[in-house]
Q: What sequence folds into this?
């Protein structure tokens, strides 16, 4: 029986982008389904007293260099394109994540996820500027203005809050986070562990 992997993501994470790029091949190899769950990384950080790698690595000798090496290994292992560093990083993703919920309700979730990740890390833009984001989404064949408006609806906001709270309650402290049943895996490097588990090849 094919398994389902939950992928808790925020567009503000370049490692979530790399995971997104690697997931299709893993799904094809294993037959697993990846259930994308939008969460607000800032909310998770606040609830868990966590900080971004850019902050936690600052001033730590050799840590940033190893992180770059780790990313190079990931790109090679999974055959994905490296991200382009967003010059506006960190980008406030509150509206983008609310729109992710709105896009689920509007039936354009997959198209939106692809577009938002692309405009954050493929051809990076200042996606916390509504005008920039709406134009980018329009250029990707979506109705940017409608999605932005939908993202401000109370029920949409409530779903994102609930997703984020549930993630913290289950043990999440950052993104990307993966769940296979109740087994939690954190970080893009753990995708190899995830694949081994769902394919039955792990020890």
A:
């Amino acid at each position: 029986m094919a398994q389902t992997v939950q992928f808790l993501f925020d567009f503000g994470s370049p490692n979530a982008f790399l995971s997104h790029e690697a997931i299709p091949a893993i799904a094809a190899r294993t037959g697993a389904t990846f259930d994308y769950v939008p969460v607000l990384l800032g909310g998770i950080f606040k609830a868990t007293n966590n900080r971004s790698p850019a902050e936690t690595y600052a001033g730590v000798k050799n840590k940033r260099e190893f992180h770059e090496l780790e990313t190079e290994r990931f790109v090679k292992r999974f055959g994905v394109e490296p991200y382009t560093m967003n010059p506006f990083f960190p980008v406030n993703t509150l509206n983008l994540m609310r729109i992710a919920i709105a896009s689920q309700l509007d039936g354009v979730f997959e198209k939106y996820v692809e577009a938002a990740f692309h405009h954050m890390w493929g051809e990076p833009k200042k996606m916390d500027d509504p005008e920039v984001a709406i134009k980018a989404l329009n250029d990707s064949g979506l109705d940017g203005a409608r999605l932005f408006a939908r993202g401000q609806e109370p029920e949409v906001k409530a779903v994102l809050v609930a997703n984020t709270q549930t993630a913290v309650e289950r043990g999440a402290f950052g993104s990307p986070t993966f769940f296979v049943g109740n087994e939690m895996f954190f970080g893009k490097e753990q995708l190899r562990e995830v694949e081994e588990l769902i394919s039955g090849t792990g020890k």
About this structure: DSSP finds ten helices and four strands in the chain. The beta strands are 4-9, 33-38, 177-180, 183-186. The first strand starts at residue 4 and ends at 9.
